[in-house]
Design a protein that fits this description.
Layout (H helix, E strand, L loop, with lengths): L7 E6 L2 H14 L8 E5 L10 H11 L5 E5 L2 H13 L7 E3 L4 H13 L4 H10 L7
Parallel strand pairs: 1-2, 1-3, 3-4
Helix pairs in contact: 1-4, 4-5
């Protein structure tokens, strides 16, 4: 996928460790998905728990390959942070979307779908459909 437009994915968690682990899990379950740019934006700059607009902005810029950026979040203030950045209008790449999806299952679905070369609409749909995954 080198040089091709591909959807980038950012995983925003209150914990750097959680965000990084979900990136690793999603990539692993997607067969490595080496062509999909995925970045973790977890915790605060000082390493503590929380969310950081600066880390989210940097992560989104790092995965932007021209096909849009899908952002998945874990909990409340992570959602609010991304919504605030989107409202600013110039803090995130132009076609960045906050996806309404479960964090872990949605991340896996998003990475797998992006690895198949799908567009942002398809990545969003796949991640959102993860709400329907039955476990029992």
């Amino acid at each position: 996928m080198s040089g091709e437009k591909v959807v980038g994915i950012v995983l925003v968690s209150h914990s750097a460790e959680v965000a990084s682990s979900v990136v690793e899990l999603a990539r692993g379950l997607a067969g490595g998905a080496v062509g999909v740019p995925v970045a973790a934006a977890g915790g605060r700059e000082d390493g503590g728990l929380g969310t950081s607009a600066e880390l989210v902005s940097a992560a989104a810029a790092s995965v932007d390959r021209g096909a849009g950026v899908a952002v998945l979040t874990d909990l409340g203030s992570a959602v609010l942070t991304v919504k605030a950045l989107l409202a600013e209008g110039d803090e995130l790449p132009g076609d960045t979307r906050l996806l309404d999806a479960p964090f872990v299952e949605g991340a896996v679905a998003a990475v797998v779908t992006a690895a198949a070369g799908a567009d942002l609409d398809a990545v969003e749909a796949a991640a959102s459909e993860a709400y329907g995954y039955r476990k029992v």
